[in-house]
Amino acid sequence: MSLSQKYSGKVLVPWFNSAEWHYVYSLVNSNKKENLVEALQLLHIWKIRTPLLSAGIEGTLILLDALGTDLEQLTEEQIKQIYALSLMRFLNVCATNNDKQGKFTKTMADSDLPKWLINIRHDVAHNHKLPDLNILDLALTICFNWVKYNYWESQKDKIVDYIVTNVDYPSSIVNVFTVYVDLILKVYHNQEPETYSQEFLDKVNLCIPKRVNSITYNPVGVVCYLEKLLQDKVTVDNAKSIRKVFAQYLVSENTLLSKIYENNDEGKRFRYMWKNLLNILHEKDMLFDVINQLFEETHNALLCNARRRTASLWINELFKALVKSKMIKKEFERISNDYSQLDAKTGKIVLKTFVDKNPHLKDTLDLEINNFPNSEGEEFLEKITENPDEYTKIYLDSVLLFNGKSQLFNKHTNKLLDAYNIAKIPQGSQVIYNLDSLSNLMVDLETTMDFNNEINNINGSTSTNSFLKWTPVSNPGSFTGLPLGVLPTQNRLTNPLLMF
User: What's the Rg (C-alpha) of the chain?
Assistant: First the structure.
Protein backbone atom coordinates (compact mmCIF):
# COMPACT_ATOMS: atom_id res chain seq x y z
CA MET A 1 0.00 0.00 0.00
CA SER A 2 1.03 3.67 -0.13
CA LEU A 3 0.46 6.73 1.99
CA SER A 4 -2.64 8.74 1.18
CA GLN A 5 -1.81 12.20 -0.13
CA LYS A 6 -4.50 13.51 2.23
CA TYR A 7 -2.38 12.44 5.21
CA SER A 8 -1.55 15.61 7.15
CA GLY A 9 0.97 14.35 9.72
CA LYS A 10 4.74 14.25 9.48
CA VAL A 11 6.39 11.37 7.65
CA LEU A 12 9.95 10.52 6.74
CA VAL A 13 10.35 11.46 3.08
CA PRO A 14 12.85 10.05 0.59
CA TRP A 15 14.03 13.36 -0.90
CA PHE A 16 17.01 15.08 0.69
CA ASN A 17 15.35 18.50 0.81
CA SER A 18 12.66 20.53 -0.92
CA ALA A 19 15.11 21.51 -3.67
CA GLU A 20 15.46 17.85 -4.70
CA TRP A 21 11.66 17.43 -4.76
CA HIS A 22 11.26 20.53 -6.94
CA TYR A 23 13.98 19.28 -9.26
CA VAL A 24 12.08 16.02 -9.83
CA TYR A 25 8.92 18.11 -10.26
CA SER A 26 10.59 19.99 -13.12
CA LEU A 27 11.69 16.72 -14.74
CA VAL A 28 8.23 15.15 -14.48
CA ASN A 29 6.66 18.21 -16.12
CA SER A 30 9.16 18.19 -18.96
CA ASN A 31 8.26 16.92 -22.43
CA LYS A 32 11.80 15.71 -23.11
CA LYS A 33 12.33 11.97 -22.97
CA GLU A 34 15.77 12.24 -21.32
CA ASN A 35 14.26 14.31 -18.47
CA LEU A 36 11.52 11.74 -17.88
CA VAL A 37 14.15 9.00 -17.82
CA GLU A 38 16.12 10.94 -15.20
CA ALA A 39 12.94 11.48 -13.19
CA LEU A 40 12.29 7.73 -13.25
CA GLN A 41 15.81 7.00 -12.02
CA LEU A 42 15.43 9.41 -9.11
CA LEU A 43 12.02 7.97 -8.20
CA HIS A 44 13.57 4.50 -8.07
CA ILE A 45 16.20 5.90 -5.67
CA TRP A 46 13.38 7.33 -3.55
CA LYS A 47 11.71 3.92 -3.58
CA ILE A 48 14.89 2.32 -2.25
CA ARG A 49 15.20 4.96 0.47
CA THR A 50 11.55 4.76 1.51
CA PRO A 51 9.64 1.74 0.18
CA LEU A 52 6.31 3.14 1.44
CA LEU A 53 5.96 6.15 -0.85
CA SER A 54 3.09 8.63 -0.93
CA ALA A 55 0.31 7.72 -3.35
CA GLY A 56 1.18 10.47 -5.84
CA ILE A 57 4.84 9.49 -6.09
CA GLU A 58 4.08 5.76 -6.24
CA GLY A 59 1.60 6.39 -9.05
CA THR A 60 4.11 8.50 -10.98
CA LEU A 61 6.71 5.74 -10.65
CA ILE A 62 4.28 3.14 -11.96
CA LEU A 63 3.33 5.24 -14.98
CA LEU A 64 6.87 6.29 -15.91
CA ASP A 65 8.03 2.67 -15.65
CA ALA A 66 5.41 1.73 -18.23
CA LEU A 67 5.73 4.74 -20.52
CA GLY A 68 9.52 4.45 -20.52
CA THR A 69 9.51 0.83 -21.70
CA ASP A 70 11.79 0.04 -24.67
CA LEU A 71 9.16 -0.99 -27.21
CA GLU A 72 11.53 -2.10 -29.97
CA GLN A 73 12.46 -5.39 -28.29
CA LEU A 74 8.87 -6.39 -27.37
CA THR A 75 5.89 -7.77 -29.23
CA GLU A 76 2.59 -5.89 -29.21
CA GLU A 77 1.10 -8.44 -26.81
CA GLN A 78 3.96 -8.01 -24.38
CA ILE A 79 3.57 -4.23 -24.47
CA LYS A 80 -0.16 -4.58 -23.82
CA GLN A 81 0.57 -6.76 -20.80
CA ILE A 82 2.93 -4.14 -19.34
CA TYR A 83 0.55 -1.24 -20.04
CA ALA A 84 -2.48 -3.10 -18.70
CA LEU A 85 -0.82 -4.16 -15.45
CA SER A 86 0.59 -0.64 -14.90
CA LEU A 87 -2.81 0.94 -15.52
CA MET A 88 -4.55 -1.37 -13.05
CA ARG A 89 -1.84 -0.83 -10.40
CA PHE A 90 -2.03 2.93 -10.85
CA LEU A 91 -5.80 2.99 -10.45
CA ASN A 92 -5.65 0.79 -7.36
CA VAL A 93 -2.69 2.45 -5.66
CA CYS A 94 -3.04 6.10 -6.60
CA ALA A 95 -6.27 7.23 -8.22
CA THR A 96 -8.61 5.54 -5.71
CA ASN A 97 -6.34 5.82 -2.67
CA ASN A 98 -8.45 7.38 0.06
CA ASP A 99 -8.60 7.54 3.82
CA LYS A 100 -12.15 6.21 3.60
CA GLN A 101 -12.39 2.84 1.90
CA GLY A 102 -15.46 2.18 -0.18
CA LYS A 103 -16.71 0.85 -3.48
CA PHE A 104 -14.11 1.21 -6.25
CA THR A 105 -16.59 2.80 -8.68
CA LYS A 106 -17.53 5.54 -6.21
CA THR A 107 -14.00 6.42 -5.15
CA MET A 108 -12.94 6.39 -8.80
CA ALA A 109 -15.74 8.81 -9.68
CA ASP A 110 -14.55 11.21 -6.96
CA SER A 111 -11.10 11.36 -8.55
CA ASP A 112 -12.31 13.19 -11.72
CA LEU A 113 -10.80 10.57 -14.04
CA PRO A 114 -12.84 9.46 -17.10
CA LYS A 115 -15.44 6.84 -16.25
CA TRP A 116 -14.41 4.63 -19.15
CA LEU A 117 -11.19 3.84 -17.27
CA ILE A 118 -13.34 1.77 -14.88
CA ASN A 119 -14.37 -0.42 -17.80
CA ILE A 120 -10.77 -0.71 -18.99
CA ARG A 121 -9.68 -1.83 -15.52
CA HIS A 122 -12.53 -4.39 -15.46
CA ASP A 123 -11.52 -5.79 -18.86
CA VAL A 124 -7.88 -6.05 -17.76
CA ALA A 125 -8.81 -7.88 -14.58
CA HIS A 126 -11.53 -10.22 -15.85
CA ASN A 127 -11.61 -10.56 -19.65
CA HIS A 128 -9.54 -13.05 -21.64
CA LYS A 129 -8.59 -10.37 -24.17
CA LEU A 130 -6.76 -7.18 -23.29
CA PRO A 131 -7.94 -3.80 -24.66
CA ASP A 132 -6.39 -2.38 -27.81
CA LEU A 133 -2.83 -1.01 -27.43
CA ASN A 134 -3.86 2.50 -28.53
CA ILE A 135 -6.57 2.54 -25.84
CA LEU A 136 -4.11 1.46 -23.15
CA ASP A 137 -1.55 4.05 -24.29
CA LEU A 138 -4.19 6.80 -24.18
CA ALA A 139 -5.32 5.67 -20.72
CA LEU A 140 -1.75 5.84 -19.36
CA THR A 141 -1.24 9.31 -20.85
CA ILE A 142 -4.47 10.57 -19.27
CA CYS A 143 -3.46 9.11 -15.92
CA PHE A 144 0.00 10.68 -16.15
CA ASN A 145 -1.48 14.13 -16.82
CA TRP A 146 -3.89 13.55 -13.93
CA VAL A 147 -1.16 12.71 -11.41
CA LYS A 148 0.95 15.66 -12.56
CA TYR A 149 -1.93 18.01 -11.75
CA ASN A 150 -3.41 16.31 -8.69
CA TYR A 151 -0.15 15.51 -6.92
CA TRP A 152 2.85 17.41 -8.29
CA GLU A 153 1.11 20.68 -9.06
CA SER A 154 -0.96 20.69 -5.86
CA GLN A 155 2.08 19.94 -3.67
CA LYS A 156 4.71 22.26 -5.19
CA ASP A 157 3.90 25.18 -2.87
CA LYS A 158 3.43 22.99 0.20
CA ILE A 159 6.75 21.15 0.30
CA VAL A 160 8.85 22.66 3.10
CA ASP A 161 12.01 21.61 4.90
CA TYR A 162 11.82 20.57 8.54
CA ILE A 163 15.30 20.41 10.00
CA VAL A 164 15.58 17.77 12.70
CA THR A 165 17.92 18.56 15.58
CA ASN A 166 18.63 16.87 18.88
CA VAL A 167 16.23 18.88 21.03
CA ASP A 168 13.64 18.01 23.63
CA TYR A 169 10.64 20.00 22.46
CA PRO A 170 8.00 19.53 19.71
CA SER A 171 9.63 21.54 16.92
CA SER A 172 13.28 22.15 16.10
CA ILE A 173 14.80 25.43 17.21
CA VAL A 174 15.52 26.32 13.58
CA ASN A 175 11.83 26.12 12.73
CA VAL A 176 11.02 28.24 15.78
CA PHE A 177 13.56 30.83 14.61
CA THR A 178 12.24 31.03 11.04
CA VAL A 179 8.63 31.25 12.21
CA TYR A 180 9.55 33.98 14.69
CA VAL A 181 11.34 36.05 12.03
CA ASP A 182 8.47 35.67 9.56
CA LEU A 183 5.88 36.52 12.21
CA ILE A 184 7.50 39.74 13.45
CA LEU A 185 7.70 40.90 9.82
CA LYS A 186 3.97 40.26 9.42
CA VAL A 187 3.27 42.16 12.64
CA TYR A 188 5.51 45.03 11.48
CA HIS A 189 3.61 45.29 8.19
CA ASN A 190 0.27 45.19 10.10
CA GLN A 191 -0.76 42.09 8.18
CA GLU A 192 -4.04 40.73 9.50
CA PRO A 193 -3.88 37.14 10.83
CA GLU A 194 -6.82 36.25 8.57
CA THR A 195 -4.53 36.77 5.57
CA TYR A 196 -1.82 34.36 6.80
CA SER A 197 -1.44 31.33 4.57
CA GLN A 198 -2.52 27.96 5.91
CA GLU A 199 1.01 26.68 5.40
CA PHE A 200 2.38 29.41 7.69
CA LEU A 201 -0.34 28.80 10.31
CA ASP A 202 0.55 25.11 10.31
CA LYS A 203 4.22 25.94 10.91
CA VAL A 204 3.29 28.24 13.78
CA ASN A 205 1.07 25.62 15.39
CA LEU A 206 3.96 23.14 15.31
CA CYS A 207 6.01 25.55 17.43
CA ILE A 208 3.51 26.48 20.11
CA PRO A 209 1.50 24.33 22.55
CA LYS A 210 -2.28 24.45 22.64
CA ARG A 211 -2.29 26.44 25.88
CA VAL A 212 -0.76 29.44 24.08
CA ASN A 213 -3.37 31.77 22.59
CA SER A 214 -4.09 31.12 18.95
CA ILE A 215 -2.09 33.22 16.51
CA THR A 216 -5.38 34.24 14.89
CA TYR A 217 -6.39 36.11 18.02
CA ASN A 218 -3.06 37.22 19.47
CA PRO A 219 -0.04 37.26 17.10
CA VAL A 220 1.93 39.54 19.45
CA GLY A 221 1.45 37.03 22.27
CA VAL A 222 2.79 34.27 20.03
CA VAL A 223 5.82 36.46 19.20
CA CYS A 224 6.54 36.84 22.93
CA TYR A 225 6.21 33.09 23.48
CA LEU A 226 8.60 32.31 20.60
CA GLU A 227 11.11 34.84 21.99
CA LYS A 228 11.03 33.07 25.34
CA LEU A 229 11.44 29.71 23.58
CA LEU A 230 14.50 30.95 21.68
CA GLN A 231 15.94 32.41 24.88
CA ASP A 232 15.56 29.11 26.75
CA LYS A 233 16.39 26.59 24.05
CA VAL A 234 19.38 28.11 22.28
CA THR A 235 22.36 26.85 24.28
CA VAL A 236 26.11 26.75 23.92
CA ASP A 237 25.86 23.12 22.76
CA ASN A 238 23.32 23.55 19.95
CA ALA A 239 24.43 27.07 18.96
CA LYS A 240 27.43 25.59 17.15
CA SER A 241 25.24 23.71 14.70
CA ILE A 242 22.62 26.39 14.07
CA ARG A 243 24.50 29.71 14.13
CA LYS A 244 25.20 29.67 10.37
CA VAL A 245 21.60 28.75 9.55
CA PHE A 246 20.30 31.55 11.76
CA ALA A 247 22.59 34.13 10.19
CA GLN A 248 21.79 33.13 6.60
CA TYR A 249 18.05 33.22 7.22
CA LEU A 250 18.16 36.55 9.06
CA VAL A 251 20.38 38.29 6.50
CA SER A 252 18.33 38.10 3.31
CA GLU A 253 16.32 40.32 1.00
CA ASN A 254 13.13 39.09 2.69
CA THR A 255 14.17 39.83 6.28
CA LEU A 256 16.85 42.17 7.61
CA LEU A 257 17.59 43.61 4.15
CA SER A 258 13.96 43.82 3.05
CA LYS A 259 13.83 47.54 3.79
CA ILE A 260 16.29 50.21 2.70
CA TYR A 261 18.20 51.59 5.67
CA GLU A 262 16.66 54.98 6.54
CA ASN A 263 17.51 57.41 9.32
CA ASN A 264 13.93 58.45 10.03
CA ASP A 265 11.09 57.36 12.32
CA GLU A 266 10.05 54.52 10.02
CA GLY A 267 13.62 53.29 9.63
CA LYS A 268 14.12 53.46 13.40
CA ARG A 269 10.90 51.48 13.93
CA PHE A 270 12.11 48.78 11.52
CA ARG A 271 15.52 48.51 13.24
CA TYR A 272 14.03 48.41 16.73
CA MET A 273 11.73 45.60 15.63
CA TRP A 274 14.81 43.35 15.58
CA LYS A 275 16.18 44.50 18.94
CA ASN A 276 14.95 41.56 21.04
CA LEU A 277 16.17 38.96 18.56
CA LEU A 278 19.56 40.65 18.17
CA ASN A 279 19.92 40.74 21.95
CA ILE A 280 19.21 37.01 22.13
CA LEU A 281 21.87 36.36 19.49
CA HIS A 282 24.25 38.72 21.29
CA GLU A 283 23.74 36.87 24.57
CA LYS A 284 24.31 33.49 22.87
CA ASP A 285 27.57 34.65 21.18
CA MET A 286 25.94 34.54 17.74
CA LEU A 287 25.81 38.23 16.84
CA PHE A 288 29.11 38.14 14.97
CA ASP A 289 27.73 35.38 12.76
CA VAL A 290 25.13 37.90 11.61
CA ILE A 291 27.80 40.59 11.15
CA ASN A 292 29.97 38.23 9.09
CA GLN A 293 26.98 37.27 6.96
CA LEU A 294 26.29 40.97 6.33
CA PHE A 295 29.94 41.33 5.32
CA GLU A 296 29.48 38.54 2.77
CA GLU A 297 26.52 40.48 1.33
CA THR A 298 28.62 43.63 0.90
CA HIS A 299 31.22 41.60 -1.02
CA ASN A 300 28.76 39.84 -3.31
CA ALA A 301 29.24 41.54 -6.68
CA LEU A 302 26.11 39.82 -8.04
CA LEU A 303 23.89 41.89 -5.73
CA CYS A 304 22.69 45.39 -6.51
CA ASN A 305 24.50 48.28 -4.84
CA ALA A 306 21.43 49.27 -2.80
CA ARG A 307 21.35 45.88 -1.07
CA ARG A 308 25.10 45.81 -0.48
CA ARG A 309 24.98 49.32 0.98
CA THR A 310 22.07 48.38 3.24
CA ALA A 311 24.11 45.45 4.57
CA SER A 312 27.07 47.75 5.27
CA LEU A 313 24.85 50.22 7.13
CA TRP A 314 23.53 47.36 9.26
CA ILE A 315 27.14 46.42 10.12
CA ASN A 316 27.69 50.02 11.17
CA GLU A 317 24.51 49.97 13.28
CA LEU A 318 25.48 46.78 15.10
CA PHE A 319 29.00 47.99 15.89
CA LYS A 320 27.62 51.31 17.09
CA ALA A 321 25.28 49.34 19.37
CA LEU A 322 28.23 47.34 20.71
CA VAL A 323 30.22 50.53 21.30
CA LYS A 324 27.24 52.11 23.07
CA SER A 325 26.89 49.07 25.36
CA LYS A 326 30.60 49.12 26.17
CA MET A 327 30.44 52.79 27.09
CA ILE A 328 27.35 52.30 29.28
CA LYS A 329 29.08 49.41 31.03
CA LYS A 330 32.02 51.66 31.88
CA GLU A 331 29.62 54.26 33.32
CA PHE A 332 28.07 51.63 35.58
CA GLU A 333 31.48 50.28 36.64
CA ARG A 334 32.56 53.79 37.56
CA ILE A 335 29.79 53.83 40.17
CA SER A 336 30.04 50.23 41.40
CA ASN A 337 32.13 47.17 40.63
CA ASP A 338 29.00 45.04 41.02
CA TYR A 339 26.69 47.16 38.91
CA SER A 340 24.12 44.33 38.74
CA GLN A 341 23.17 45.23 42.31
CA LEU A 342 22.33 48.86 41.50
CA ASP A 343 18.71 49.85 42.04
CA ALA A 344 16.48 50.76 39.10
CA LYS A 345 16.42 54.46 39.95
CA THR A 346 20.21 54.76 39.90
CA GLY A 347 20.33 52.80 36.67
CA LYS A 348 17.92 55.22 34.97
CA ILE A 349 19.97 58.21 36.13
CA VAL A 350 23.16 56.68 34.72
CA LEU A 351 21.48 55.97 31.36
CA LYS A 352 19.99 59.48 31.14
CA THR A 353 23.37 61.04 31.91
CA PHE A 354 25.00 58.87 29.24
CA VAL A 355 22.45 59.87 26.58
CA ASP A 356 22.87 63.53 27.45
CA LYS A 357 26.64 63.21 26.96
CA ASN A 358 26.31 61.14 23.75
CA PRO A 359 23.22 62.38 21.87
CA HIS A 360 24.55 60.85 18.63
CA LEU A 361 23.99 57.38 20.15
CA LYS A 362 20.48 58.06 21.41
CA ASP A 363 18.69 56.23 18.55
CA THR A 364 21.26 53.43 18.30
CA LEU A 365 20.04 49.94 19.19
CA ASP A 366 20.39 48.87 22.82
CA LEU A 367 22.33 45.66 23.45
CA GLU A 368 22.97 43.88 26.74
CA ILE A 369 26.17 45.03 28.47
CA ASN A 370 27.39 41.66 29.73
CA ASN A 371 28.93 40.10 26.64
CA PHE A 372 31.66 41.52 24.37
CA PRO A 373 33.62 39.02 22.23
CA ASN A 374 36.75 41.12 21.68
CA SER A 375 38.58 38.39 19.80
CA GLU A 376 35.85 38.29 17.15
CA GLY A 377 35.99 42.07 16.88
CA GLU A 378 39.73 41.91 16.17
CA GLU A 379 39.23 39.13 13.63
CA PHE A 380 36.55 41.14 11.84
CA LEU A 381 38.78 44.24 11.74
CA GLU A 382 41.58 42.15 10.25
CA LYS A 383 39.21 40.71 7.65
CA ILE A 384 37.84 44.04 6.46
CA THR A 385 41.28 45.65 6.23
CA GLU A 386 42.57 42.71 4.21
CA ASN A 387 39.51 42.70 1.90
CA PRO A 388 38.20 46.28 1.71
CA ASP A 389 35.72 47.52 -0.85
CA GLU A 390 33.83 50.72 -1.58
CA TYR A 391 31.45 50.02 1.36
CA THR A 392 34.08 49.42 4.06
CA LYS A 393 34.35 53.12 4.90
CA ILE A 394 30.69 53.16 5.96
CA TYR A 395 31.37 51.06 9.06
CA LEU A 396 35.14 51.29 9.49
CA ASP A 397 35.12 53.97 12.20
CA SER A 398 32.60 52.03 14.31
CA VAL A 399 34.68 48.85 14.03
CA LEU A 400 37.86 50.70 15.01
CA LEU A 401 36.10 52.34 17.95
CA PHE A 402 34.76 49.00 19.19
CA ASN A 403 38.26 47.53 19.10
CA GLY A 404 39.66 50.45 21.09
CA LYS A 405 42.25 51.53 18.54
CA SER A 406 44.15 54.80 18.97
CA GLN A 407 43.23 57.92 17.00
CA LEU A 408 46.54 57.72 15.14
CA PHE A 409 45.87 54.10 14.15
CA ASN A 410 42.36 55.06 12.99
CA LYS A 411 43.70 57.97 10.95
CA HIS A 412 46.31 55.84 9.17
CA THR A 413 43.79 53.05 8.49
CA ASN A 414 41.33 55.47 6.93
CA LYS A 415 44.05 56.96 4.72
CA LEU A 416 45.13 53.52 3.55
CA LEU A 417 41.58 52.55 2.62
CA ASP A 418 41.06 55.86 0.82
CA ALA A 419 44.19 55.21 -1.22
CA TYR A 420 43.08 51.62 -1.88
CA ASN A 421 39.66 52.65 -3.19
CA ILE A 422 41.00 55.50 -5.31
CA ALA A 423 43.50 53.14 -6.91
CA LYS A 424 41.11 50.26 -7.25
CA ILE A 425 37.87 51.66 -8.64
CA PRO A 426 39.06 53.59 -11.72
CA GLN A 427 41.40 50.70 -12.62
CA GLY A 428 38.64 48.13 -12.36
CA SER A 429 39.20 46.81 -15.85
CA GLN A 430 39.37 43.23 -14.58
CA VAL A 431 35.67 43.42 -13.66
CA ILE A 432 33.32 42.83 -16.57
CA TYR A 433 30.05 44.78 -16.31
CA ASN A 434 27.01 43.76 -18.32
CA LEU A 435 23.39 44.79 -18.87
CA ASP A 436 22.44 43.35 -15.47
CA SER A 437 24.93 45.76 -13.93
CA LEU A 438 23.20 48.60 -15.77
CA SER A 439 19.84 47.47 -14.39
CA ASN A 440 21.33 47.48 -10.91
CA LEU A 441 22.62 50.99 -11.54
CA MET A 442 19.10 52.21 -12.35
CA VAL A 443 17.94 50.83 -8.99
CA ASP A 444 20.86 52.53 -7.28
CA LEU A 445 20.09 55.90 -8.88
CA GLU A 446 16.77 55.99 -7.03
CA THR A 447 18.42 55.56 -3.64
CA THR A 448 21.87 57.12 -4.03
CA MET A 449 21.09 60.54 -2.59
CA ASP A 450 19.27 59.13 0.42
CA PHE A 451 22.05 56.68 1.16
CA ASN A 452 24.82 59.23 0.76
CA ASN A 453 22.99 61.50 3.19
CA GLU A 454 22.67 58.57 5.62
CA ILE A 455 26.38 57.81 5.41
CA ASN A 456 27.29 61.47 5.91
CA ASN A 457 25.00 61.69 8.93
CA ILE A 458 26.39 58.52 10.49
CA ASN A 459 30.10 58.92 9.88
CA GLY A 460 30.36 62.71 9.43
CA SER A 461 32.28 62.34 6.18
CA THR A 462 31.63 62.22 2.46
CA SER A 463 31.10 58.68 1.18
CA THR A 464 33.07 57.11 -1.62
CA ASN A 465 31.36 57.51 -4.99
CA SER A 466 30.15 54.00 -5.79
CA PHE A 467 29.52 54.93 -9.43
CA LEU A 468 33.12 55.48 -10.48
CA LYS A 469 32.83 52.30 -12.50
CA TRP A 470 30.37 54.18 -14.77
CA THR A 471 32.45 57.09 -16.13
CA PRO A 472 32.10 59.06 -19.38
CA VAL A 473 34.47 58.04 -22.16
CA SER A 474 36.85 60.94 -22.74
CA ASN A 475 38.70 59.32 -25.66
CA PRO A 476 36.33 57.27 -27.89
CA GLY A 477 39.21 56.62 -30.30
CA SER A 478 40.77 54.24 -27.77
CA PHE A 479 38.03 51.72 -28.62
CA THR A 480 38.99 51.59 -32.32
CA GLY A 481 39.40 48.01 -33.52
CA LEU A 482 38.12 46.44 -30.29
CA PRO A 483 35.32 43.84 -30.32
CA LEU A 484 32.05 44.87 -28.68
CA GLY A 485 32.25 44.43 -24.90
CA VAL A 486 36.06 44.61 -24.66
CA LEU A 487 37.74 47.55 -22.93
CA PRO A 488 41.01 49.13 -24.11
CA THR A 489 42.71 48.08 -20.87
CA GLN A 490 41.89 44.41 -21.37
CA ASN A 491 44.18 41.99 -23.21
CA ARG A 492 44.82 38.27 -23.31
CA LEU A 493 47.61 38.53 -20.72
CA THR A 494 45.12 39.68 -18.08
CA ASN A 495 42.12 37.85 -19.47
CA PRO A 496 42.92 34.47 -21.12
CA LEU A 497 39.43 34.36 -22.68
CA LEU A 498 40.40 37.19 -25.04
CA MET A 499 42.13 36.14 -28.27
CA PHE A 500 44.12 39.32 -28.99
Answer: 31
Residue 3, SS3 per DSSP: strand
- Decide if 97 contacts 4 (C-beta within 8 A): yes
Instruction: Compute φ and ψ for 3, nearest 5 degrees.
Output: -75, 135
CA angle 133, 135, 139 (to 5 degrees): 115
Closest CA relative to residue 294, chosen from 272, 277, 316, 278: 316
| CA angle centred on 274, ends 166 and 178, rounded to 5° | 35
- Within 13 A of 391's CA, how many CA atoms are on the CB side? 22
Is the residue at 47 inside a domain? yes
Whether 288 and 380 have beta carbons less than 8 Å apart is answered as yes
Q: Is 434 within 8 Å of 373 (Cβ atoms)?
A: no
Q: Global pTM?
A: 0.54
The residues of the chain scoring below 70 in pLDDT are 1-11, 94-111, 162-171, 210-217, 236, 338-343, 370-371, 373-374, 420-472, 490-500
- What's the domain range around 97? 18-155
Q: 10 Å Cβ neighbour count for 10? A: 9
Residue 101, in any domain of the structure: yes
Residue 139: inside a domain, yes or no? yes
Per this entry, what is the length of the chain? 500
Could you please report the per-residue DSSP string of 120-170?
HHHHHHH-SSPPPHHHHHHHHHHHHHHHIIIIIIHHTTT-------S-SSS
Asked whether residue 76 is assigned to any structural domain, the reply reads yes
Which pLDDT does position 193 carry in this prediction? Answer: 84
Residue pLDDT, tens place only, 52-102: 888 889 999 999 999 888 888 889 999 999 999 999 998 888 655 654 555
pLDDT in tens, 373-414: 668 888 999 898 888 888 888 999 999 988 888 888 888 888
The contacts of residue 261 (CB under 8 Å, 6+ apart) are 267, 309, 310, 313, 314, 317, 451, 454
SS3 410: helix
Q: How many domains does the chain have?
A: 1
